[in-house]
Amino acid sequence: MAETSITINDVVFVVDCGKAKETSYDALNNTPCLLPSWISKAAARQVYCPSVLSKVKGSLKAPSPCITWGVRRQKGTCPSERRGRAGRVQSGECYHLYPRCVYDAFSDYQLPELLRTPLQSLCLQIKSLQLGSISEFLSRALQAPEPLSVQNAVEYLKIIGALDENENLTLLGRNLSVLPVEPKLGKMLILGAIFNCLDPIMTVVAGLSARDPFMMPFRQERKSAKAQFAARNYSDHLALVRAFEGWKDAERRQSSYEYCWRNFLSAQTLRAIDSLRKQFFFLLQDTGLVDHNPENCNRLSHDEHLIRAVICAGLFPGICSVVNKEKSVALKTMEDGQVLLYSVKVNSVFLRDSTGVSDSVLLLFGGNISRGGLDGHLKMLGGYLEFFMKPALADTYISLRRELEELIQNKLLDPKHDIQLHSDKLLSTVRLLVSEDQCDGRFVYGRRLPAPSKKATKEMPPGNTLESKKLAEKDAAGEALLWLRGENHSTSRDIDHMSHRQWLSPAPPPPRRSPTWTTSARKTSGRLTSPLRVPSPMQSALASVHVAWTRMIATASGDVIITNDGATILNKMELPSSPPLRCLSSSPSHRTPLLETVPPPSSSSPEPSSASVKYYSPMASTLPLSPTHSTRPHSRPSTFLTAMAIPIELTDRDSLVKSASTSLNSKVVSQYSTLLAPLAVDSVLSVVDPAKPEIVDLRDIKIVKKLGGTVDDTELVKGLVFDKKVSHASGGLTRVENAKIAVIQFQISPPKTDIEQSIVVSDYAQMDRILKEERQYILGMIKKIKATGCNVLLIQKSILRDAVTDLSLHYLAKAKILVVKDVERDDIEFITKTLNCLPIANIDHFRVEKMGYADLVEEASVGDGKIVKITGIKDMGRTTTVLVRGSNQLVLDEAERSLHDALCVVRCLVSKRFLIAGGGAPEIELSRQLGAWAKVLHGMEGYCVRSFAEALEVIPYTLAENAGLNPIAIVTELRNKHAQGEINAGINVRKGQITNILEENVVQPLLVSTSAITLATECVRMILKIDDIVTVR
């Protein structure tokens, strides 16, 4: 019962006979094992009690003289004391009975963990600490491990690329040494981050680190439930990814319990996997391989073939080969010989958590490749795996493999290196190859996978007609490979269409050439025309709420987003070519001065950080090809726009509210603009520093989302709000007045070493002493905290060990200290700035002067959950908190985005206190002014300015088109109005005509248009300056 964690309420008497499961390591087979074994005498002494040999409660008499027994009766009423044994749910008794002959056969002490576990992680730590040779260092241990175990660990690290031939750490090894997981799982995480498919890989690694989430109450039903997640892709790992994503979707719909019950899944294990994923992401952030935006490292998370390749790279050399027979297939591994795919016999060796991979995946992402005796013969794992193909194809695989390894090394050397930007052709070719050469179910006789719904494509010259689609796909893959190498496409016919695994007639290999990725002269037009395709999916967003369409975005992870927010739509777009990516890279630059300012509806763009860049970039792309002629028109637009602007004052609150309200009219939650607009104005004005009123940091405004209620329940809180509840352990406090608050970054838990080790306890007295010292250690920390008068404790989340334990919470509750635990590290700066306090990193630095003070700290019920509010803060910093409510997750997310846009509008007006008309008025007026200026210029400069002016008309044209008006007639009339001196004339989409747009209160901040035009022009000038695209190593 204890080993299987089964709890039966009526079982209160438990007999322990001295058997336990112990982790061991088989050095001969290089395999860790979990085997039942006898405990040691040292462990037995903890429960051995001769004083009760004769009788226990009158029911147990002394045994016969030939056998003596050690008996100790244990009672327990606390679940944490007798978990899994007697007393878990009620009082019980536990008896430990050992025959004397069995006890005499016990070993004196448990085998040290160093001798019964794999040594790969320890070897990495030894090399990272620069302790010299691994074997020499371990030989100096009190009980040195077997030389064969050390040799196996070193060889394994060499195979996966963590150590070089001289046992020195590689770049991969240095990154693996800081990850607290097995090296193979750490490598999988690193490659998932490098190839931008991190989210599913984190799920796989977390699933392999935790227990199997698929439970087995009914074996056949459980197999059927798991099979539906596999989706005939022959991958346990992808089945785990789909099961976890389905659970996350169900959790958002608040139906996770029904989902787990229906699919035989363990909710506790899935929550553990979710927690591990978050820890992995923070660890990878520390390495620099990922940034704070998860979208950047998940751009290819939808590519299951690439995910399969990364799994292969991580689990290698755990490879099982497929031996095809006449009527069946056999599976064989290098160590165990023939194995089974599933557990069908009790004593059989079977595979678990396996994924089928193709030859191309193994050649590109597996171990080192060596050449065989014949041309086109490749070997892996010392000849255990052999591949036979055309010599040209073999050379191509080796060349691609070398380029992939260089790409990974460059990324590890410089984590900021964007592989999709610099190695787009290589990645496209590799993805094409691994998706074309699929694992087609060869290891299950008579079954085949359906053709995938989508394939990566590469335009190639038309070839000869082939008799089947499969041959055409192989032909296309061959042409793509040879195109990468710079060879003639016609030679791709040399690739055999029948199989990659067959003997071919010897032929001399082609001359070896390095891939040349330089562009030809005709690529220049592609750089100019490709940005024109960027705004196409977003043109319908350029309008007011009456005509703007809402987009439903389906992400790679299966999430659905309903929005017409330009930045959100743009961030979800996948643009493979470099010039559009350059346009996208301008969006963050545009956000920096504006902090995502959003102009009002019927204006020149739905969002400057997205739409303005996307529309102005194609405008500016009509400039002449020489970048030197695009400099002078770059500086004039700001002057023209400023001349037509209207100044405002911060004391004019009505104008600020009107501007913010207008920006919300095109949003999904526009009906709540009367609530959100004043809230946005009050939030920004509350964080404005009178000494520097033009500088406003929106990071000082914390937006907290809480599901439940409606958007009408959104409120501005002058203080702090935590989307969590306080600790209720041992009757902890939920309300504190006159609070003295401390923010700590240390752990209130027993200390643990950085390197795993085991402690041998010889008798029960020493065990009691250890427990007593742990209690004294924790109690001493809490006494120091209580001595300062602190009564509210905010504890930062820790991934190294428990930030706080049940015992700590018990003592804190007794000390009348309210505890809020698991505070995110990113929130510490905002919290300390709000409370006007300092974070405390060590218990020795706990001082009264580092604390903050507030009138009230309380836990409040909001919807179906709890929040913690801190109000009445003394000497509060210039920050504020907004609690956003919504009836479902889609509305809640859109309300947050809309509120953020309104905050950006007000912030923009604070930075530059001018308003200009919307409705296409600034663009058409700017076009008219530049056109007049172009007439006085000559030659190329005049043509450049005139082209720039004509391109600006795309904004009013698109606005009229989306409003259902005649764009040619409307833009012509608008141009005539401005020629007559009506500079505020714009498109009124409600009336369908040209009116004075200022009278309709359709305005936008001046900073929006000036920044959009400036940055968009800089973007295109940068593209024009690119003469060639060269990939460097």
Automatic annotation (TrEMBL):
GO terms for cellular component: cytoplasm. Keywords: ATP-binding, Chaperone, Cytoplasm, Helicase, Hydrolase, Nucleotide-binding. It is found in: Cytoplasm. It comes from the Eukaryota. Residues 152-241 form the Helicase-associated domain. It comes from Fagus sylvatica (Beechnut). It holds the Pfam family RNA_hel_CTD. Residues 495-535, 577-613 are annotated as: Disordered. Belongs to the TCP-1 chaperonin family. Belongs to the DExH box helicase family. This is T-complex protein 1 subunit delta. Residues 580-589 have a biased composition (Low complexity). Signal peptide: none annotated.
